[in-house]
Amino acid sequence: MTPGARHDEIRVEGETVYIRVTSPPADGAANDAVLRLLAAALGRPPRDLTLLRGANARIKLIGIATS
């Protein structure tokens, strides 16, 4: 994840998903933006995604509800 980017973007290279968001990394704003952007790309509501690990790191583990 790259916070403070010029534009929001999701890019997939192999098995890695790169996400860039314009939100700053303060007060969890970038993490919330990542979850919203990824949910929109997957066609799921943001409530279906949960940040499992990496709240303060660039590498994150995100859980996706199955139903």
Structure description:
The protein is globular and about 30 Å long. The protein is 21% helix and 28% strand. The chain has one helix at 29-42, and strands at 9-13, 16-20, 49-53, 61-64. It contains 1 helix and 4 strands. By secondary structure, it is an alpha+beta fold. The longest helix has 14 residues, at 29-42. The strands form 2 sheets. Strands 1-2 form a two-stranded antiparallel ribbon. The chain has one domain. The model has no long low-confidence stretch (mean pLDDT 93). A hairpin with a 7-residue loop joins strand 3 and strand 4 (61-64).
The radius of gyration is: 11 Å
Low-confidence stretches: none
Give a count of the beta strands, DSSP E runs of length 2 or more: 4
Class by alpha and beta content: alpha+beta
User: Strand order of the main beta sheet, please?
Assistant: 1-2
Q: What is the averaged pLDDT score?
A: 93
**Approximate helicity band:** 10-25%
- Which word captures the global form? globular
Overall structural domain count: 1
Distance between the termini: 26 Å
The share of residues in extended strands comes to 25-35%
The secondary-structure element order is EEHEE
Summarize the model shown.
The protein has 67 residues and is of the alpha+beta class.
Question: Keywords, please?
Answer:
67 residues, alpha+beta, two-stranded antiparallel ribbon, 21% helix
